[in-house]
Amino acid sequence: MSERAYTSSEIQKIFTKAVRKMDSWILGENESLDRIEYDLNLITEIPGEPIDVSWELDRYDVMNVYGDLNEDKLSDEGTLVMLKAVLTYRERESEQALYECAAMVYSCKTGEAGAVSMQVQDKIKEYDKKTQTKALLTLPDSVGEKQVRFYRTMDRKGIVLMLMSVLILILLYALDKQNQQKELENRRQQMRLDYPEIVNKLTLLLGAGMTAKRAWKKIAEDYAGKNQKEKRYAYEEMRYTCHEMDSGVMESESYERFGRRCNLQEYLRLGALLSQNLRKGTKGLGDLLRLETVQAFEERKARARRLGEEAGTKLLIPMFLMLAVVLVIVIVPAFLSIQL
After folding, report:
1. Looking at the DSSP assignment, which residues form a beta bridge with residue 55?
2. pLDDT tens for residues 80-114?
3. Which of 18, 139, 143, 200 is 20 to 30 A off residue 112, Cα-Cα?
4. pLDDT of residue 318
């Protein structure tokens, strides 16, 4: 496929934009065209555009067409150099633009810093000539009466990578904390949903004549025998409590530990209820559990209503977006028909 061709108006826009940015492109390490101490970057094409650039200078003894300075011809007072660039689109002479500027070129030896820099460069060249036949280049440790130390140029990519690594570690840590918090919240929600069912089963088994310990183990064994695909945290804690009882922990203390591990008000209440009635006797335990079952189911209904309200609130944003789309579909054709 052939390269895209620009129209005359597009070419003129490119020329205008290029001429406006030319000063910043050619400066190189210099700060301004009013004081040029380092080589200019006289580009031969516009970045990203099919525009060629050719340069003409009035002082080729001071600077060449690539922007390299001739230090021997420079002075401390400065030398004025007129630069002219011809921008050509695809070598078509009919489609050209002109860029002109004046640069005041100074010797980089100007000033104390420049003089020291040139002395160091001359010293390095001198050492380079002396050690051409050796495997290593020896650098000078002093220039005149001043000590010289050389340092490796710091690679900014390394700093960026290090900062990005630290940032990634922080984000991963924050993500891990967020996932832990989310998992803990899901655990609490699931245990709250299972609580009415657990209390109801205990009530039925106690009403059938089982002891609290036997009813507890029956519920845990039924859960283990079903091979649940999803882990139910409340039933897992009940199984753990059964293992504690089998290992010699007192039954009342096992129930209290169960409530503390669940760390929810409902299970703390259930563990305390079973433990207290075990110490005082099981009389009236069934009635207390029935009241607890009724209360638990009422709380579950209230929680379900609250979750429904939250879900309805979350649906408001999609509903408003759909309303906006409908309004656009209805109003835009109406406006278009009015204009016609």
Report:
1. 85
2. 888 898 888 876 766 788 888 888 888 765 445 55
3. 139
4. 82
Q: 234 with 198: CB under 8 angstroms?
A: yes
Q: What is 142-208 written as a DSSP string? A: EETTEE----PPP-HHHHHHHHHHHHHHHHHHHHHHHHHHHHHHHHHHHHHHHHHHHHHHHHHHHHT
The per-residue pLDDT for range 285-303, each reduced to its tens digit, is 777 777 777 777 777 777 7
The model's pTM: 0.46
Helix (H, G, I), strand (E, B) or coil at 261: helix
Least confident of 51-55, 105-109, 166-170, 177-181: 105-109
Two structure tokens written together for 335 = 């406006």
Cα separation, 18 vs 13, in Å, equals 9
d(CA 137, CA 129): 9
Contact 289, 269 (CB under 8 A): no
**Alpha helical stretches, state H, the chain:** 8-26, 111-130, 156-207, 212-225, 233-246, 251-262, 265-280, 285-314, 316-339
Task: Please name every residue paired with 96 in a beta bridge, in sequence order, or none if there are none.
Answer: 88
Q: What angle do CA 144, 149, 151 make, to 5 degrees?
A: 150
The span from the CA of 239 to the CA of 242, in Å, is 5
Predicted confidence (pLDDT) per residue in 125-141, tens digit: 777 777 777 777 777 77
In the chain, pLDDT over 90 holds for what percent of residues?
Answer: 6
Are the beta carbons of 65 and 55 closer than 8 angstroms? yes
For residue 319, give Cα distances in angstroms to 312, 313, 316: 10, 10, 5
Q: Which residues contact residue 251 at a Cβ distance below 8 angstroms, ignoring those fewer than 6 apart? A: 212, 213, 245, 278
